[in-house]
Recover the amino acids of this structure.
């Protein structure tokens, strides 16, 4: 219980610091240096906490095993290729923002909370709220109030889907892929959300496909040992 409480406090503090950095980014006119600060924060902090504070493997924590890493490289290459081919200027919003946000919100925050208590709905909802509220300074003051509220709601719903992807797969690969496509094709966001809803409804059948291979192998070995013990007590 104490470890769970510490995890929640750590996640909230991470979010508060991010909000402060985003506030300064907007306050100082969205300069490159302030963008570098909060982007670097989202990238470096989760890896540093995992490696030096929690003493855990970054590869296992974020699902960077060999099979997942290869998929991540392919997705990264295709994403950059699409950005280049369509001559898209907002490479940060299309590519880097989804990657950094998935590392922080799903890979670290959700992964930290889910480790101590497998209450999917509670932690996915909490991290989705933190994820959506982190977009306040991204949209403000460009959006009027009604559009800002709608954008926050959509971000929250998207966070729910991304959270389920992470819980099922134990890797940020699928979250990053969906997030990147979502940012890349704004006119098709509603169909993407509908497809995501169908995936959630079909979760029991699709889980073996999304699940981390290493985790599946370990589970299979455990079941094999249990079967052997039951046969030869």
């Amino acid at each position: 219980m104490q470890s769970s409480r510490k995890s929640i406090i750590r996640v909230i503090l991470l979010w508060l610091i991010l909000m402060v950095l985003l506030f300064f980014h907007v306050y100082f006119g969205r300069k490159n240096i302030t963008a570098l600060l909060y982007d670097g924060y989202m990238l470096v902090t989760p890896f540093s906490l995992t490696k030096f504070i929690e003493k855990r493997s970054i590869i296992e924590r974020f699902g960077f095993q060999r099979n997942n890493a290869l998929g991540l490289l392919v997705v990264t290459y295709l994403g950059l290729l699409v950005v280049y081919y369509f001559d898209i200027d907002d490479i940060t919003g299309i590519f880097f923002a989804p990657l950094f946000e998935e590392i922080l919100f799903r890979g670290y925050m959700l992964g930290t909370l889910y480790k101590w208590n497998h209450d999917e709905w509670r932690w996915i909802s909490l991290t989705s709220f933190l994820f959506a509220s982190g977009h306040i300074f991204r949209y403000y003051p460009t959006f009027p109030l009604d559009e800002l509220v709608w954008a926050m709601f959509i971000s929250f719903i998207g966070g729910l889907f991304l959270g389920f992807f992470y819980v099922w797969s134990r890797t940020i690969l699928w979250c990053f892929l969906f997030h990147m496509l979502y940012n890349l094709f704004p006119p098709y966001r509603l169909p993407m959300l509908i497809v995501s809803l169908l995936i959630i409804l079909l979760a029991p059948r699709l889980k073996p496909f999304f699940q981390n291979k290493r985790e599946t192998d370990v589970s299979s070995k455990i079941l094999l040992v249990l079967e052997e013990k039951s046969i030869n007590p």
The chain has one domain: 2-231. DSSP finds twelve helices and no strands in the chain. The longest helix spans residues 2-27. The radius of gyration is 19 Å.
